[in-house]
């Protein structure tokens, strides 16, 4: 399911612990069937896809400090509501899924998992600003509780990258680098998250036209993809193509910048040579008035006016 790849998790009364073994997979509603496992999430990144198709990676789902103990009746109602949300999402009825999540969020306004899930739905609708607000609010709550979710960080980085602009691209880059750091601490369990973060970071750097850095990130991405999917897998081949493209554009970019530097240095030298060849004097003399006003054709001795010459005679 696509929403599994987006890190869509169930918001129940009790939050999942960050060190839970099942934290790397989407949460299933209580009493409902578990969603189809991601099988180490080999379908996390569509071939040639941009980060818009992955709103949040499966990561540690650390609940905020807004956990609420609910009665069995409330838990059953919550499970039924989340089951309906998952059903709507599976059927691509994102408007109804968003409405259901908004309704749950009104009852539990500090629930970071509900905010995360609503951010995923907004991302599916390409409502980037609304998705950014949801992911940002969830991220703030998680930071206060000291239980930051890698999935929420990834989702926030994705929507920032999709919106573009220098500041948002830089913020998205920082989030993806933080995701890589968090995934590295999980060792083998963090390999899928490392792969996702590397792919998204590469695409973020490409949008910033930082081709040499993008190529540096694509290299470990290709190595991971080869180990995870095989040498001839479509994803691996797509990443290798992206690496070759980034390396080629990096060489062109370096050459273009070299030409610009040469032109920048040669232009003032050429102007100075042309100025001196024209006999205009130094620019300093011109600024200080050293050249003075040009003499009129009749100025100077031996060029008296006719009337003055006649009087002298």
SSE topology string:
HHHHHHHHHHHH
Helices and strands: which structural class? mainly alpha
- Give the radius of gyration: 33 Å
Low-confidence runs (pLDDT<50, min 5 residues)? 1-6, 10-67
Distance between the termini: 115 Å
- How many helices? The count is 12
- Strand tally is 0
Helix content: 55-70%
Q: pLDDT average, as an integer?
A: 75
Net shape: elongated
**Beta-strand content estimate:** under 5%
Query: How is the main sheet built?
Result: none
Structural write-up:
This protein is mainly α. It has 12 helices and no strands. Helix 5 runs antiparallel to helix 6, helix 6 packs antiparallel against helix 7 (166-185) and helix 9 (211-229) runs antiparallel to helix 10 (234-277). The longest helix has 44 residues, at 234-277. The chain is elongated, with a radius of gyration of 33 Å. Residues 1-6 and 10-67 have low confidence and may be disordered.
Notable characteristics:
313 residues; disordered N terminus; mainly alpha
Describe what is shown at a glance.
The protein is mainly alpha-helical. It is built from twelve helices and no strands.
Question: What layout of secondary structure does this protein have?
Answer:
Elements: H1 2-5, H2 72-90, H3 94-107, H4 112-124, H5 128-145, H6 150-163, H7 166-185, H8 191-207, H9 211-229, H10 234-277, H11 283-288, H12 306-312
